[in-house]
Amino acid sequence: MSLRRLALNALCLCDPDEKVLAVQALWDGKNAHALSTGEHVHPETTVTLPGRPSLPRLIPAKQVATRTPFTPEGLAALLHAVCHIEFNAINLALDAVWRFPDMPETFYQDWLLVAYEESQHFQMLHQHLNSLGHRYGDFDAHDGLWHMCQKTADDVLARMALVPRTLEARGLDATPLIQAKLRKAASLPALRAVEMLDIILRDEVGHVAIGNHWYRWLCDQRGLDPVPLYGELVQRYDAPKLRPPFNEEARKRAGFTDTELQYLLGA
User: Fold this and answer.
1) Helix, strand or coil for residue 58?
2) For labelling alongside 133, which of 46, 81, 152, 202 has CA 20 to 30 A away?
3) What are the backbone dihedrals phi and psi of residue 159, each rounded to the nearest 5 degrees, phi first?
4) Cβ-Cβ contacts under 8 Å for 254 (sequence gap 6 or more)
5) Distance between CA atoms of 87 and 3, rounded to whole angstroms?
């Protein structure tokens, strides 16, 4: 079975722990499977993507309760929200591996690496959440990341523009703000979460850089200007409008140019 089909199989798994183990096994054994870059992979007609547990309950983003780290329950809710993002990020990366044929081999290797690192993030955060007496599924969440994944299912260029370099790049901006709140809470579990977010932010810079690389590569292949095209894609797919403050230092490390940052500031 090809690596891309195995990625689809992992995406279909509903149990978070099983999904994490499947992704990590796939990464460890990646050289044992052909990529089959030209293969057109299709899920079973009875399968609903992505595979996920019955909980958390998914509700509109505006209805998700505000999370404060200044109480044990609030800290757990905040950690759960980040856990949910990382679980979705595993699914987003796996979807990129199986869905889009005829890309260079390094495209699939890049997104498999992202899936692997996101699985590590989820596992690390979930263990911390468990230490607080909770588990993934205990709090409500929203489904904005996967909705954009569905919207861009037919175009890998739109996917690269609007998932890694838009929605996931928001994490570069949000993480320092979350860390500042956690430091103010000053409890040992909150400060441990700050350390975990340092690891996640480091890796997410690389993930967004991968999205930037493939977005520009695809623009070059199609003879398109990446800067004005981005604004067109935001409107066409009704993507969320990004608002400052932006983590300009992290975004630059992730490959955003000064011109792109100026566009965001003026959008």
Assistant:
1) strand
2) 202
3) -60, -50
4) 169, 172, 205, 206, 208, 209, 212
5) 20
Closest CA to 96 of 205, 210, 228: 210
Which structure tokens are listed for 259?
Answer: 């011109």
- C-alpha distances in Å from residue 162, one per residue of 38, 159, 203, 246: 24, 5, 19, 17
What DSSP designation does 25 have? H
Over residues 208-263, the pLDDT tens digits come to: 999 999 999 999 999 999 999 999 999 999 998 888 899 999 999 999 999 999 88
Partner residues linked to 141 by β-bridges: 58
CATH number assigned to the domain covering 3-266: 1.20.1260
* Rounded distance between C-alpha atoms, residue 245 and residue 265, angstroms: 9
Angle (nearest 5°) at CA 161 between 158 and 67: 115
Element housing 241 (H / E): none
Convert the pLDDT of each residue in 148-206 to its tens digit.
Answer: 999 999 999 999 999 999 999 999 999 999 999 999 999 999 999 999 999 999 999 99
Domain-wise residue ranges, the chain: 3-266
Question: Contact 146/156 with Cβ under 8 angstroms?
Answer: no
The neighbour count for residue 60, using CB atoms within 10 Å, is: 10
Amino acid (1-letter code) at residue 226:
P
Q: Do 40 and 101 touch, CB atoms closer than 8 A?
A: yes
Strand partners, 58: 141
CA gap 258, 228 in Å, rounded = 14
Identify the residue whose tokens are 């905040």.
Answer: 78
The rounded distance, in Å, linking the Cα atoms of 222 and 218 is: 6
- DSSP secondary structure of 124-146: HHHHHHHHTT--TTSS-B--HHH
